[in-house]
Design a protein that fits this description.
Radius of gyration: 24 Å
Shape: globular
Strand content: 5-15%
CATH architecture of the largest domain: 3-Layer(aba) Sandwich
Structural class: alpha/beta
Largest sheet: 6 strands, mixed
Oligomer: single chain
Number of strands: 15
CATH class of the largest domain: Alpha Beta
Distance between the termini: 76 Å
Helix content: 40-55%
Number of domains: 2
């Protein structure tokens, strides 16, 4: 009798274990939550195309598209940090490679290494190695770069410049002359939308490259350039001069608003990362026809780089499905599906260049030849504390115009957060 009861209990236990295992497998096959801030024109369409590709390969996995609006992820990053610290991570999330990934999530032990997956998929040598290294820490890789963006790029409305006899500038002096000429004609010379602060900081970082040069700029982050270098003050002077020519309502607008001001013919120039190129295409513009582009004057030869990456958080609810997502975005098909729409170039070296428009093709050529420099505004160059402090410094500087105070603040912040 005891033997029969024991057998019955064993059978019931096995059935229960099989049920739990089956339920777990069903849950695993069921969904994957992808967290990002891609809600704007171009980026949203690119993400949707990537999800569609994923669904073709994994039709039984539902993608939970968890997006939080806010340029450069200003709102999403706060939500994400709360979730990660609170032990409620998504299955995978968008994060900029470099300091933002490493300092915030890797060093704090919140991410799983994916080096073995990259090796298993045979893709580790398919990426630009400088970009891939932006996701590494102590010999391990923690995220997959899905793209490469450039922040030191300036777009211009070709018709507006032609109507006002303004030539694309060749240096900062001719740029200021072009701005003054457009101003006299009653056109907004440079459209800006910095309600989230970072677009103004992004202009300043481009000017830092213009005055320091790529080696000097990169030296700010590796200890080779002092924070009291006179070229930093010079960049602040140029920034102050240029800010005299932006639209008065800039602090109430987003980067998309500012790009649209130029697209609608109300402004001549717009300094914005090349995600704006993807946005302008959704507005009906064709690169090289209605709009042109160039590096921010005197920053030629430097490619200020931003890379969006996705990794595997510790405690992800559906880790196997997260790995499927990472495999999709690591593939050449994934990169060639997403980037032509997004307005970015692939992180992989074997992409099909025929899929990319004239701007993106030119960006690929510059990327291959230029010195790569990490973006401050987008979290690649410096710790979060420095970025926040610099955003506040630049925001205050726009109002006060006090070059010496801004220069002193830069030095103090650099000493506190970077050195």
């Amino acid at each position: 009798m005891l033997f029969k009861k024991s057998m019955l209990l064993s059978i019931l236990l096995m059935v229960a274990l099989l049920f739990v295992s089956s339920f777990s497998a069903m849950a695993q096959d069921g969904e994957v939550e992808i967290f990002s801030w891609w809600t704007g024109g171009g980026e949203e369409e690119g993400l949707n195309a990537l999800i569609e590709l994923f669904n073709e390969d994994y039709p039984d996995v539902e993608v939970i598209n968890a997006t939080v609006a806010g340029g450069a992820g200003s709102n999403a990053k706060a939500v994400l940090k709360t979730r990660m610290v609170g032990g409620n991570p998504p299955d995978s999330f968008q994060v900029h490679g470099g300091a933002e990934l490493v300092n915030t999530y890797v060093e704090t032990g919140m991410m799983e290494p994916i080096t073995g997956l990259l090796e298993e998929w045979g893709v580790k040598d398919k990426f630009n190695q400088q970009i891939l290294e932006m996701s590494s820490y102590e010999g391990e890789y923690y995220s997959v770069p899905v793209n490469v963006h450039r922040s030191n790029i300036m777009f211009y409305n070709k018709a507006v410049l032609e109507e006002n006899n303004v030539e694309p500038p060749t240096d900062l002096a001719s740029f200021k002359e072009a701005l003054a000429k457009l101003d006299e004609a009653g056109v907004v010379p440079l459209s800006l939308g910095d309600t989230n602060k970072w677009p103004a900081t992004q202009i300043f970082e481009s000017l830092l490259v213009s005055t320091l040069g790529p080696e000097g700029y990169n030296g700010l982050w590796n200890g080779n350039t002092a924070a009291d270098d006179p070229a930093i003050r010079e960049a602040l002077v140029h920034f102050d001069d240029i800010m005299q020519y932006v639209n008065e309502d800039h602090s109430a607008l987003t980067w998309q608003d500012a790009t649209q001001i130029m697209q609608e013919g109300e402004a001549g120039f717009n300094i914005m990362g090349d995600w704006a190129e993807g946005y302008m295409k959704t507005l009906g513009w064709t690169p090289g026809e209605e709009f042109g582009w160039m590096p921010v004057p005197e920053s030629e030869g430097t490619f200020i780089v931003i890379t969006d990456t996705f990794g595997l958080p510790k405690g992800a609810p559906n880790p196997e499905n997260a790995e499927k997502w990472l495999k999709t975005i690591a593939s050449v098909e994934g990169q060639d599906t997403f980037n032509p729409i997004k307005g970015s170039i692939p992180a992989r070296l074997d992409a099909d260049k025929s899929k990319y428009d004239p701007y993106l093709t030119s960006a690929m050529e510059d990327f291959a030849e230029d010195t790569l420099s990490p973006s401050i505004a987008h979290g690649s160059a410096a710790p979060e504390g420095f970025i926040t402090a610099l955003n506040d410094t630049i925001n205050e500087f726009i109002t006060t115009g006090d070059v010496d105070a801004a220069f002193e603040n830069f030095q103090d912040n650099h000493e506190e957060y970077v050195q």
